[in-house]
Design a protein that fits this description.
By secondary structure, the chain is an alpha/beta fold. It is built from 21 helices and 24 strands.
Length: about 775
């Protein structure tokens, strides 16, 4: 899959399109020809059968739809912009001739142009009806076939974008508002629910969760803060532009990128008409969808999708963390394995995060504004690796002219300098609203709604007040978030009967110190004969989901059950109570040794940690008692050691003094005096006594030193006994901390209170 980027017809400069699975960067100042090169890359992708997803911040990429293989002046005429006094037809003819000449020099023939012209190019304009509208705030459907990680990432990106629209900067990890909203979206998607912004606001005020992390909900984010958050989100809904965000096709990349026959698709997301916050919202949402789409694709080393951003400034900056940055970096890291390549264009390399630059394997560098920009590019290329002569590359970049680029790819031997080929697309510049409408074509008006409604097939059945909770049955509103889950159709006019139930449950156990209340809600459709909780769908419904009047033109299906009979409803109450008593319970963790029970919602690890704290306190208490037992024994042993050490020290001092005296008198005096007869018997006795005293002192010192050793060994023995006792105590309490088991806390009939049980009508297709 060779892509022709530049050079001449005889000596083309080409790249392997599959190399862009390692991503690419196009850098060049205004007027360098950067956008033209980007469009050329998109043309090559489409001619190779590779679909394209392009983010267009300036409005130029829509030119991809202006490929005219016939090169006739009539094709160019609607798109040229003649100067005052110029004839449009003549300008169109000159433009057609210019394009024919340029394409011939570049070696681009009609067959290649027809391959690109045959692509299905759709220009989406979220927030505007100028092109093909893209509804991003309408139905927030869960990602298709996505794993939990993709759902989590996409939920975070969506919430970051919505908060940005509400002018709220929030850290996805630390900010309570972001964590709450992301949890609500993620839990709904994991359950297969489709949300809209109104439903998200309602759940913000009254979340269907009781804890976030280890904290109770109200402690994590107070009701006052939730109300303030809901007000900010409501301002988004109430704003004049909110309707535009809801209109249009759903953001479904499977559909948007699907080929038409053998014609590849190009989905161009134009954000040129939006402010910065709205652009962030769109780019973050689209890129998060692209991450989910990529993860669903099987592995390949071929290019499966090219994602192009004509100007990445502000979307993946080196310091800040806008909502768009994380999905872009994720695609740069993970896209290669799934055949998804990113091609990012920017005027200034300082606008691009260093990690993004280091993930790019293909570089196309045009004229730059400053030496600092050039140094930044060279630094990024050096970090990628490869044997590249940076000095030679720097010299080449410095001498570039307009539409000249240096191509450096990690899979190529050396950089190549080239002039871009002529673009097949007519580069008309940013498309105007009129141009977008021309490309979109006429929009078929929706047929007017009928003003007459047929009479109901049967009368609405009234339910006796004593039997059900309302004398008049309710009608499920089209906007009830759970309606599709029970098979309903928001636009349907055929009404079928169902039962909605709301039950208060209280799990209490004085031994486990559990006193937990929860609400169980469900919708039963079709109408049950006997209410079995297993047959219903547990959904979070409230009074806002029901109205008092049927939709216009409604027809009614007759109930199969005797809903006008109070016995029917009493039996339903009894059956739901009995079933919930038999089936519902809550699980808690029990530690019999410590006589502890876990709190509801407390994880096994958290409960083990709490048991560890209690066991540590018990061990500390036993160790304190052990200390009391050993204290006297240790004190006595230490006193004896000090006495022995003192005695040994005294004897050692005495012995040194005696020996010094002996040295002064002269060693061998006794032998000399006795042999030479120089002393009297008294003198000999004195000398002999001094010698004997030294000997006795040496013996006593040896005994004292032996006593010191014995005392030290006694203390060591005490320490060994103490260590054994300490280890026994700590091991015993450690085992107690880990001895946990799971127990069930059930319900009694007095713990079940049916607070609502009534007939409702559901709109069906």
């Amino acid at each position: 899959m060779r892509w022709h980027l530049g050079g001449s017809a005889d000596d083309p400069v080409e790249i392997d399109g599959d190399d862009l699975t390692t991503h690419g960067v196009v850098v060049g100042m205004t007027g360098s020809g950067k956008t033209g090169l980007g469009i050329i890359c998109l043309e090559e992708a489409l001619s190779s059968g590779v679909p394209v997803l392009a983010i267009d911040p300036k409005g130029d990429i829509g030119n991809l739809a202006l490929v005219f293989p016939e090169l006739s002046s009539e094709d160019f005429e609607p798109w040229v912009d003649p100067a005052p006094g110029e004839d449009r037809a003549e300008v169109a003819a000159a433009t057609a001739a210019l394009w024919a000449s340029g394409l011939e020099r570049s070696g681009v023939d009609r067959e290649r142009m027809e391959a690109v012209a045959g692509a299905e190019v759709v220009i989406y304009t979220p927030g505007s009806a100028a092109g093909t509208p893209l509804g991003l705030l309408g139905s927030m459907a869960p990602p298709v076939d996505a794993d939990a990680e993709s759902i989590r990432d996409e939920a975070r990106a969506l919430v970051s974008s919505i908060l940005l629209l509400a002018d709220i900067e929030a850290d996805p990890v630390a900010d309570p508002a972001h964590v709450l909203l992301a949890t609500l979206v993620e839990s709904a998607w994991l359950a297969g629910e489709t949300l809209d912004l109104e439903a998200l606001i309602a759940r913000t005020l009254d979340p269907p969760i009781r804890k976030l992390g280890v904290f109770e909900l109200d402690r994590f984010i107070s009701p006052q803060d939730r109300e303030a958050l809901a007000m900010r989100l409501n301002a988004v809904v109430a704003s004049p532009t909110a309707a535009a965000w809801r209109e249009g096709e759903a953001l479904d990349l499977d559909r948007m990128l699907a080929p038409t026959g053998d014609r590849p698709a190009a989905a161009v997301i134009s954000v040129a008409h939006l402010d910065d916050a709205s652009r962030q919202f769109v780019v973050a949402t689209v890129m998060a969808k692209a991450v989910s789409w990529a993860r669903r694709q099987p592995g390949t080393d071929r290019l499966r999708l090219l994602i192009y951003m004509d100007e990445v400034f502000g979307f993946a900056p080196p310091t800040a963390n806008p909502p768009s940055k994380q999905p872009i970096l994720t695609l740069l890291k993970q896209g290669r394995a799934h055949g998804v390549g990113l091609l990012l264009a920017t005027q200034n390399p300082m606008d691009l995060d260093y990690k993004a630059m280091s993930n790019a394997g293909t570089w196309m560098i045009g004229r730059l504004q400053t030496e600092r920009d050039q140094a930044r590019i060279l630094e990024g290329m050096a970090s990628v690796g490869g044997d590249v002569d940076l000095a030679d590359l720097s010299a080449r970049i410095s001498g570039l002219e307009k539409r000249e680029f240096v191509l450096h790819a990690t899979r190529s031997d050396e950089p190549v300098q080239f002039s871009t080929r002529w673009a097949m697309s007519y580069l008309a510049g940013p498309l105007s609203r009129e141009g977008l409408e021309r490309l979109r074509g006429p929009v078929e008006p929706e047929p007017p709604a009928s003003r007459t409604a047929p009479e109901p097939a049967v009368d609405v059945v009234a339910v006796a007040p004593a039997a059900a909770d309302s004398a008049n049955p309710g009608y499920a509103r089209a906007g009830a978030p759970w309606l599709p889950l029970v098979g309903g159709d928001p636009s349907g006019t055929r009404l079928e009967p169902a039962v909605v139930a709301r039950v208060d449950l209280r799990f209490d156990d004085r031994y486990a110190e559990v006193d937990h209340a929860e609400e169980w809600e469900a919708v039963f459709h079709p109408l049950p004969k006997a209410l079995d909780p297993g047959l219903g769908l547990a959904v979070d419904h409230d009074d806002r989901d029901f109205g008092d009047s049927p939709p216009s033109g409604a027809t009614f299906e007759l109930p199969d059950q005797p809903v006008a009979d109070g016995t029917y409803w009493r039996n339903l109450r009894t059956s739901i109570t009995n079933a919930l008593v038999a089936e519902r319970s809550v699980s808690v963790w029990k530690n019999p040794d410590l006589k502890l029970y876990s709190r509801l919602g407390e994880s096994r690890d958290d409960f083990l940690a709490r048991c560890g704290d209690v066991a540590a306190a018990g061990a500390d208490a036993d160790l304190a008692k052990l200390k009391d037992r050993y204290e006297t024994k240790v004190r006595t042993a230490q006193d004896r050691l000090r006495t022995a050490e003192s005695k040994a020290d005294t004897l050692a001092i005495d012995l040194r003094a005696d020996r010094q005296d002996e040295m002064v008198g002269g060693v061998g005096d006794l032998l000399g005096a006795f042999a030479g007869g120089r002393s009297s018997s008294a003198g000999l006795r004195r000398i002999a006594r001094r010698r004997a005293e030294i000997d006795r002192t040496e013996v006593r010192l040896a005994e004292a030193e032996a006593s010191v050793v014995a005392r030290m060994e006694a203390i060591a023995a005490i320490e060994t006994d103490l260590a054994t006792d300490v280890e026994h105590i700590t091991d015993e309490w450690a085992l107690k901390a880990e001895a946990i088991e799971e127990v069930e806390i059930g319900l009694e009939k007095s713990d079940v209170r049916v607070t609502e049980l009534r007939l409702v009508w559901l709109p069906m297709a």
